[in-house]
Amino acid sequence: MTEKTYGLNVLLDLCGGTEEAVQSLLPHYVLRNDGLWLDRHASDELALAWDQADAIGARRDLDLLKARRLSAECVGRSWTPSGDSGKPALPIPFNVRQFTAFSLAGGGMALIELFDFGAVVDEGELNPLPADASENRRASHADLVQRLRAADHAAAAELEAALQSLGKDAKDAKELVRAALPLLGEATAKFGRDDAGVRSAADWLLGYTQAPPNETAQEKRGRLLNWFEEETQQRGKLGALERVTNRERERRPRADRSNIGKDIKKARTERATKVRASGVFRGLGE
To answer: For 186-209, what is the mean pLDDT?
Structure first.
């Protein structure tokens, strides 16, 4: 079965209806008959601004939405599918995976960010607790589940309202966004939203590479602990947990700060236990 593709009319619907609107929303690209091509001059100016922001340590302090778009645009200043500069960043017509890859790695985050309300509950947060869990933990978990469900329903309602703003005739544009959002969430959960992550996500979306194996709960705790120690070393302990939470929300929009703190604490215990066990085994071998 041939995968559905979308034409220039859908791109126009997402951008405001005119080619001028496309240029305004995606100023680092040139719209041609066969797709969106990178404007090298404009992208070089953006790269300079991004490097200056990095030099003064401003990247992490940018508004999250603005940072997502700038990061995507900066990665996109040299990104094309399969690394071929002789191809457009987004061909026309395009399929949902090409659109999602361009949104992530090709600088097209502005096309989808207005619809990305994170309307997907992290199922890991909803898993049943072990039978021996305390009453306090059960009550806390039940409250978290209720809040996640409520936030998910609210996000879904916001998404529908945003889609309706496209107009009643933009049926294909709405269909494209609905199909792209789950792919966007899956790709960023697997690869993250840093520069290397979005490029890897795009390659996976386009079928060039395989997805990494799913992260286990213990691996996730270890990663969070590494991030916390990295943040503490680079910027101090004050606010480190909040910064780790913000990074994790790039992967899991509903990540809870309190649960992340508990994961970090548990990861420390697991690491200490492993170190002690290692010492015991070394002692037995002497």
So the answer is: 82
Dist CA 54 CA 41 (whole Å) = 20
Using the structure block, give the residue that is written with the tokens 């990061």: 71
Q: Please return the burial class of 71, using the count of CB atoms within 10 Å of its CB with bins 0-12, 13-18 and 19+.
A: buried
Distance (Å, whole) CA 165 – CA 152? 20
Q: Are strands 90-91 and 29-32 parallel, antiparallel or unpaired?
A: unpaired
233 pLDDT more than 80? yes
pLDDT at 258: 87
